[in-house]
Structures are given as structure tokens and as C-alpha cells.
């Protein structure tokens, strides 16, 4: 009886703690959305900043955030999943594999400001590129690769336990088994890692301050040549993201209504992360059901 009482007591405590954590998170989101309710204004979302004047919008920063997300994930996802496949299915435990794992753990523990300073030294100064969107994407890739690699490795290892031998027994090659059987089964878990990486891209500021820069140019979508720095799709132009813009507004107050714009930009950032996370989870669930046959 004493054990049952203790079990019920701790169950109640854990429920209370969980409810408090969820309530705190909900209140934080509601507060940010309320203070930044001006974010629902079309002119705010699609207007350009007006330095030194009241008003303006966040269109360049919003575009840069999405573009930074696409470029960074285009680099980090293939390398992260590839590293996870190698460590899970091909690598044999030994000296070099232990070195690789230790390096992954070391990079995962690096503060983003250190990665930013490394990016400033290598991607800005040594390459001669200056502050560029591509340099920022490479810095973010360094931050995200360890987490993506570990998530991919764990997901592939777990998915392979019950189906790898069956696939090989039916005559499939090792690569066919990985590509057509294991990866689809592990996709929902891998997608969770990609979601976490995307959230870090949206919210990262320290690393991008030293690599992508703090200036946002007017976006002229009439320039088709992406090799010129005047094109919005150029990788070698300065690109101030939404998180960096929020930092700039709160630290420099370059416009009279900096607090209002920063609150609106913060609300947009929260909404972007929520939409991306919810959408990706729904997509991951649908794809998982499709490949595992659970929707039949």
C-alpha cells in the first residue's frame, strides 16, 4: 500500500509539473503574439524598413530567413543523413570511428558565438567573401550537423533492427535495403531532427552576426542574374535575418518605433516556427503511414 501511495503521489507531482511547463510556454507565446499583434498588418509583413523613420516592414528580413533556411538545409541535410547512414550501417567500431564520434560531440557543444567567430575568420576574411548569405549558411550548417547526424544515426539504427535482415533475405542489396526500406521507415524521426535544425536556423543570431551581416538591402526581384549581388537570390550578398534584425532593433534602436517593430518581428518568428513544426509533423506522420502501410 505504501508503494502505491508513493507512486500515485509522484504521478500527481509529475502531472502538475507538466501542466505548469505547458502553461508557462502557452503564456509566453500568447504574450509575444499579443505585444506583436501589429505583425498581422500586410504593410508590416511586405514593407521595407525605413531607417530613421517610423513605420516600415520586415520583408527583406523575412525573405532572408526563409532563403537562409533553404540554403542551410540544402547543405546540412544531405551531409547529416549521409553521416548517419555511414555511422549506422557501414562504420565498424574502431579508432577512427571513435575519433569521428568524439568530434561530433565536441562540435555539438560549441557555443554559437564561437562558431560565428570561426565563420568570421574563415568564411568572411580568409575567403574574401565578406558578409554573405552563403557564409551564414555554412556557419549554421556547422551548428546543425552534429544534431542531424546523431538523430539520423539513431533513427536508422532503430529502423533497421526489425527489417534489415528480412530485406536482405528477400534478395535486396545493402544499398537497396537502406534506400527503399530503412530510410522511409526512419523518415519521421529524421524529420524531427530536421525540424529542430530549422528552428535553430530561424532563431539563430549570434553566428549570423559575424557571417551574414546586419544590413538588409532592398529586394529587387527583377534582377534575374543570381551571380550579381543585387539579386535577392544571390548567395554572396549580405543577408540580415529576422532574428538578427530583432537583436539590432533592441540594441541600436535605429527607428523611433523600434520596440513595436521588434515585438511584431518576434511574433512573426514564433508563428513561422509553429507553422513549420506543425506542418512538418503532419507531413512526417502521413509519410510514415504511407511507407509502413498503417493507413490501409
Automatic annotation (TrEMBL):
Transmembrane segments: 12-34, 66-87, 99-123, 129-148, 181-202, 261-284
Key words of the record: Cell membrane, Membrane, Transmembrane, Transmembrane helix, Transport
Full protein name: Phosphate transport system permease protein PstA
Domain ABC transmembrane type-1, chain residue ranges per copy: 62-280
InterPro entries linked to this entry: MetI-like, MetI-like_sf, Phosphate_PstA
Any single Gene Ontology cellular-component annotation: plasma membrane
Membrane topology according to the record: Multi-pass membrane protein
Chain's gene name: pstA
Locations listed in the record: Cell membrane
Gene Ontology BP annotations: phosphate ion transmembrane transport
Species in which this protein is naturally found: Clostridium tepidiprofundi DSM 19306
GO MF annotation: an example: phosphate transmembrane transporter activity
Domain of life of the source: Bacteria
Family of the protein in this entry: Belongs to the binding-protein-dependent transport system permease family. CysTW subfamily.
Listed Gene3D superfamilies: MetI-like
PANTHER family referenced in this protein's UniProt entry, alphabetically: ABC TRANSPORTER PERMEASE PROTEIN YQGI-RELATED, PHOSPHATE TRANSPORT SYSTEM PERMEASE PROTEIN PSTA-RELATED
Amino acid at each position: 500500500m505504501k508503494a502505491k501511495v508513493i507512486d500515485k503521489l509522484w504521478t500527481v507531482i509529475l502531472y502538475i509539473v507538466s501542466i505548469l511547463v505547458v502553461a508557462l510556454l502557452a503564456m509566453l507565446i500568447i504574450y509575444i503574439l499579443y505585444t506583436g499583434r501589429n505583425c498581422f498588418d500586410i504593410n508590416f509583413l511586405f514593407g521595407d524598413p525605413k531607417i530613421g523613420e517610423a513605420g516600415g516592414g520586415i520583408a527583406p528580413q523575412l525573405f532572408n530567413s526563409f532563403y537562409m533556411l533553404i540554403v542551410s538545409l540544402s547543405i546540412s541535410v544531405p551531409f547529416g543523413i549521409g553521416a548517419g547512414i555511414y555511422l549506422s550501417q557501414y562504420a565498424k567500431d574502431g579508432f577512427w570511428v571513435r575519433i569521428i564520434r568524439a568530434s561530433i560531440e565536441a562540435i555539438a557543444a560549441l557555443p554559437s558565438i564561437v562558431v560565428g567567430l570561426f565563420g568570421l575568420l574563415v568564411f568572411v576574411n580568409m575567403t574574401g567573401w565578406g558578409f554573405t548569405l552563403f557564409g551564414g549558411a555554412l556557419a549554421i550548417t556547422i551548428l546543425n550537423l552534429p544534431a542531424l547526424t546523431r538523430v539520423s544515426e539513431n533513427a536508422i539504427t532503430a529502423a533497421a533492427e526489425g527489417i534489415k535482415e528480412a530485406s536482405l533475405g528477400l534478395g535486396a542489396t545493402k544499398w537497396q535495403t537502406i534506400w527503399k526500406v530503412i530510410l522511409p521507415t526512419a523518415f519521421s524521426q529524421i524529420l524531427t531532427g530536421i525540424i529542430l535544425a530549422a528552428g535553430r536556423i530561424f532563431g539563430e543570431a549570434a553566428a549570423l552576426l559575424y557571417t551574414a551581416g546586419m544590413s538588409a538591402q532592398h529586394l529587387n526581384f527583377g534582377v534575374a542574374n543570381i551571380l550579381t549581388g543585387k539579386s535577392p537570390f544571390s548567395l554572396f550578398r549580405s543577408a540580415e535575418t529576422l532574428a538578427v534584425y530583432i537583436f539590432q532593433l533592441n540594441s541600436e534602436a535605429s527607428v523611433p518605433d523600434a520596440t513595436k517593430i521588434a515585438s511584431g518581428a518576434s511574433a512573426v518568428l514564433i508563428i513561422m516556427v509553429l507553422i513549420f513544426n506543425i506542418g512538418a509533423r503532419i507531413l512526417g506522420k502521413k509519410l510514415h503511414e504511407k511507407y509502413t502501410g498503417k493507413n490501409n
